[in-house]
Design goal:
Strand content of chain A: 15-25%
Shape of chain A: elongated
Helix content of chain B: 25-40%
Order of helices and strands of chain B: EEEHEEHEHHHEHEHEEHH
Distance between the termini of chain A: 27 Å
CATH superfamily of chain B: P-loop containing nucleotide triphosphate hydrolases
Strand order of the largest sheet of chain B: 6-7-8-3-9-10
Number of domains of chain B: 1
Largest sheet of chain A: 11 strands, mixed
Largest interface: A-B, 27 and 31 residues
CATH architecture of chain B: 3-Layer(aba) Sandwich
Radius of gyration of chain B: 17 Å
Strand content of chain B: 25-35%
Number of strands of chain A: 21
Structural class of chain B: alpha/beta
Number of strands of chain B: 10
Oligomer: heterodimer
Number of domains of chain A: 4
CATH topology of chain B: Rossmann fold
Number of helices of chain A: 25
Amino acid sequence: MKSAGLSGRLLLRQGRSGALWMLIAGLAVATAALSAVSLFTDRVGRALERQASEVLAADVVISDRAPLPEHIEARARELGLATSEMITLSTVVFSDDESALFDVKAVSEGYPLRGALKIADGIGRPDRTTDTIPAPGRAWIAASGLRALEIEPGASVILGERELVVEQVLTWEPDQGDGPFALSPRLLVNYSELEGSSLLGAGSRARYRLLVAGDERAVTRFVSSTRPELEGRQQLQTVENAEAQTDEALEQARRFLAVAALTAAILAAVAVLLAATRFSRAQRDLIATLKVFGAQGGEIMRAIVLLLAWLVLLATALGAAVGVVAQHLIAGILSAQMTIALPGLRLQPLAGSMAFTALMAAGFALPPLLGLRSVPPMRILNRSLDPGTAGRRALWGLPILAALAIPVWQLGDFRLALLMLGGSAALAGLLALAAWAAMHLTRRLAGRASGAWRFGLAGLSRRRGASVLQVTALGLGLMSLLLLMVVRGELIEQWRASLPADTPDHFMLNIQPDQAEPLRRDLEELQVGQLQIRPMAIARLTAISGDIPPEDAFTGQVRLSWIDQLPPANEIIAGQFWAPDGKGQISVAKRWADRVGVKLGDRMTFDSGGREFTAVVTSIRNVDWNSFNVNFFLLLTPDAGEFLPHQFVASFHLPPDKAPELDRLARTLPNASLLDVGALIERVFQIIDQVSRAAQVVFAFTLIAGLVVLLAALEATRDERRVESALIRTLGADNATVRNGLLVEYAIMAVIAAALATLGSAVTGWILAEELFQFRYQPGIGLFIGGFTAAALLVVGAGWLGNRSVLKTPPVRILRAG
Amino acid sequence: MAREVCFAVDAPGGRLEIVKNISLELPAGQSLAIVGASGSGKTTLLGLLAGLERATSGEIWLAGQRLGDLDEDQRARLRRARVGFVFQSFHLLPSLTALENVMLALEIGRSDNPRAQALSALERVGLNHRLDHYPRQLSGGEQQRVAIARAFAGSPDILFADEPTGNLDRKTGEAVADLLFELNRDHGTALVLVTHDPRLAERCDRIATIDDGHLSGDASPSPSEQSDPSAARQAAGA
């Protein structure tokens, strides 16, 4: 033969069979699913990173207790980076009648470099984004500040020796610092108001910051050249080590989509395996003929590799194109109400998805195809001669492992991926085992049965290997369909229900100790739900088991609370709450403990207003931050906390018709700040809704992959069945016997596969709920009855439709084509 | 030429000897029919002689080359240059037309002008009006004529035919056999033919009968040729 290309063309022509298209479909679906999700998660990932930079209001922040050396800013400017200066300090601000402690922030032009400020004309008025800062002589003030000073916008306040006109209510700043739990209200002023002010004199607690942002590479250069120069108390914060307020809901969305994509990829891999095996079996006669006429092994191998290369190219190009379109759909659905804007599309993730498919093809499709090389030419005279390929298969595990590593890496969640892959492998093993046992049983039963039953049962046990493979593949395919159609709906519904209607939607801060009990009574009268009033103190962490704690956003000033019983939405994962002696103990949230490196038995030393105290870590907690309860990283035993200067924080759910009463109550507590987080909760619901809609797009691929697996599994033995049925009909069996025999065969496979798939999807749903949504999923009766019945009928129906031709074609034609 | 050829396989009941100590020779242009009952080993012998299978022991010479010395690729090269095949079930590729089926064998054999040669071969078997038909659009007799055109298109030195009329009715079978022997004579090709059909066997120059793996009947050439392998090589077209 002149070239491998010719063989490739011949093989392609020979492969007009369904198996070839199924192979292409499997490869394309794998690429499309993985492309769509990896493109989308890449965008979400970058958006989250940008959101993290909004927490800093910059890409890099350098801070110090003293003014920063000018050459640092000069270097940033030389690198083409944008800069802005900021001074923060706590000081008392006066109105005509009142005074209060404020967190004052003075900013220069350009602030914030990342994110945006939001202001309103008055309390309760709609807010708007602004790209300006307060002009000299003006101030923007937080709503709680207006209440504390008992003033309205337009009034004057005194800051140090300056008189400022309160112009706007500050409703949002990206770098909120202490966030909604800040003890003092914010006053935002122009940088010139503090520069040179007596407030910055000796003993001042002012902090100076330089904000830097710009091109990623320039930022990296700036960081690497500046970091070594830092001295004393100078600190450099980047997005990576900032306390990123990662959007938990968005992160869950990403993981949910990753699960869908992995499922699609795993199913597509199974489809590729089945289709490739069938395709290669169909090629044996062609290869034997080519060999008889003198084609050599090398030529045939080249032709096969070339053929597969063409298939992979075609399928990945198709899959990538579909993936790009699909990710637009996902982004469209999700971004409609998303609070963060997604950055543009980056094509890099496509390369990974295409490599996944190519490796998958190499691992699954190449071994059976290359096995064809050893088809003996003698097969043309004796069809029972087949090459043995089992020994060679083991070699191809490597590309499959490499292929699976790609989605794991792309989706960036090793634990989840391992869970998914392990779960799929376990389910496949279970399916295979159950199928094997069932085939063993059918063999015994076949001897006792008669007519169609005998034909059907004998068919199953005769093709025991193929039947086991079919049941396994059918089970995996059905499980994905059940997950998509039944479990997904139930999961979303139960997730929604897991945030109860009386989730706390209001917080009240800065409550003085003598106000706490009267407030509790007043709020109870208002019939608020989920009321919690908790003490809170600020302290400085000075040592962990005698060592100086690491410089971190989590350390320094910390908030402490104390309680004698474990509060709701908290779960002890190590140690005891509280240990028997009940004194001088501290319980640490896992996130905080991991970040700071604190473990059970450590002694944590704090300084509160010059008074030092030590508590021993006796428990580590998991905290559900989405519960909207008042939660603390650090909880003390009451004996350790009560002596600290403290205030109280309240959280509760307000019945909708009680807003005016609450407003009146809030006015009687001018020092306290009321925070309405109802909108935040609404946003969580919106995200849940959007995630479920976006997941439908990804699950559509899982659905297609599942269907491809179903069809590939059913197709796998069709040729054999055709010949067998023709033979039996030739021997005098009527159509009804053959038809019923086929139905028996498919029904048995359907029942085994559907039963295991139902069980598998329930277990998977339960694991997903635990892992992704942190709630307990309870499979509905609909899954067990409706899901099982539909799955079983689907298999029987599809098998039946696929084999109609077996009955319609005259037996002689099948036997002659034999 | 085959000398003391044996072929055995491992079977569940122990080692199964299918071909036992067979020797035979076939000079150029001659035809040999191998007849025997089903399962007697005649198809296996054909496969061995054509180099499709390796003998367990003994020597086989094809077109001057000892097959035992050749690996599978070398045997494939030998087949494409020197050997033609006709099978009982035709073995035409269903996705290729009649013309493409004939061209395929020529392309594998690296022919300079496969299309022209294929056209001429199909014309010779009287199928020039069925060039673009697929096998399923042809009758059994027509399919076997395409297979014969394919076998002779490359002008082989030796042609192996396995039950060439076995799938055809008597009339069509006779027409196909006429064509086969006619081409055999015209091309001066040696012909090894496995058949059940005594009438077809009688048309061959010699008949050898295989029974339980043993060959009997007139399977050997003249005594002078038998003792001289080089003469046999010459005779087989080497």
